[in-house]
Amino acid sequence: MVDVVDNGRTKSKLPSQLISPTAFGTVVSAAVNCKQPFNVPANTTLNEKYDVIAAESIGMKHGKDFSLGYYGIGIGGSRSIGADANGLEGRKVYQHKATDQAAFYPIPFIIRPIDSDIDPAIRDNYRMRVVRKIGEITYVMYYLKKIGFQLFDPMVKIGTRDKSTGNETEYPYEYKKEDLSPTPYELLTTDSIPLSNTYANGTGKLDLSLNSSDLNEIRNVCTVLFNDVTKAAINEMYLVHGIETTFDGQIGSGGTVNYKELLSAVSSFTITEAWARDANANSTMPWGFWYGNSLPMLVAQDALF
């Protein structure tokens, strides 16, 4: 860990959150944007990890069929790096490689004995239904949840970042007639590009929030899987592209049920955090992800007005 002294205080330079796009997620996004066919190779889908419609999920697919509409959670995004001189714990956030296609330690949102599966109306909000035997009991688990788009509202905003704090203030950008007829400008420097602290943020907000019922289910998941409810502390999330389909899955008494499932489920973004969001200490868990891009402005700020 690298430390610097700031006004006589020791400050860690380790980030508290890391967002990692996946390499194959960028392939899926390109195929989606261009509405073109592409190959899904082996060992890139969550279907293979959980053996859910696995063989059908690889091979040639078409970008027009995919959407980024699902997310999962995990509990392996960071670890303790010991206590400091004051006896206070420090944590290190783990970063994914570009070729990682799943969370470090994913857990399901819901777990139920197969004879007490969730109602069809609730099941409609979940994907990646996994049947697994633990001890003498067969369970169903749901690893993916639908993203909320009620607050998406994508737009371009101009943000200015404070150099000392890293905080950013922003306002909606109003395009001008001149933006359709841009003129070139000369850089004053010759050896470097003068990046400013002003950015154009083109994003929409994805709602990944968890309510009290969600958190209660996650506590139950950790009780069943680990016999330890304190494990219900989320420090990973991952966003998933996939193709909507239906599947006949196992239910109690040897029967089957037809339900919505996700084909070719590809993790496109992973988010890891040093400090977990504890399902035992919160009644709700608001969580937003701004999907899009942030682009540096290379001209003086007053040129934006």
Q: Which stretches are low in confidence, meaning pLDDT under 50 for 5 or more residues running?
A: 1-12, 301-305
The assembly state of the depicted protein chains is single chain
Strand content: over 45%
Query: Number of DSSP helices?
Result: 5
Q: Indicate the mean pLDDT.
A: 87
Q: Give the biggest beta sheet.
A: 8 strands, antiparallel
How many DSSP-defined strands? 18
Q: Nearest-angstrom radius of gyration? A: 23 Å
Q: What order do the SSEs take from the amino end to the carboxyl end, as H and E? A: EEEHEHHEEEEEEHEEEEEHEEE
Outline: globular
What is the distance, rounded to the nearest whole angstrom, between the alpha carbons of the first and last residues? 42 Å
Determine the structural class based on helices, strands and strand pairing.
Answer: mainly beta
Helix content range of the residues, please? 10-25%
Describe the structure.
The protein is mostly beta strands and 305 residues long. 13% of the residues lie in helices and 45% in strands. The chain contains five helices and 18 strands. The chain has helices spanning 23-34, 46-50, 54-57, 120-123, 212-226, and strands spanning 3-6, 9-12, 17-21, 37-40, 59-62, 66-74, 78-83, 89-93, 106-107, 110-113, 126-134, 137-146, 155-161, 168-172, 198-207, 233-250, 256-278, 288-296. Strands 3, 6, 9, 10, 11, 12, 16 and 17 form an eight-stranded antiparallel sheet that branches. A four-stranded antiparallel sheet has the order 14-13-15-18, with no helix packed on it. The chain has a two-stranded antiparallel sheet with strand order 1-2. The protein is globular, with a radius of gyration of 23 Å. It starts with a strand and ends in a 9-residue tail after the last strand. The model is unreliable at 1-12 and 301-305 (pLDDT under 50).
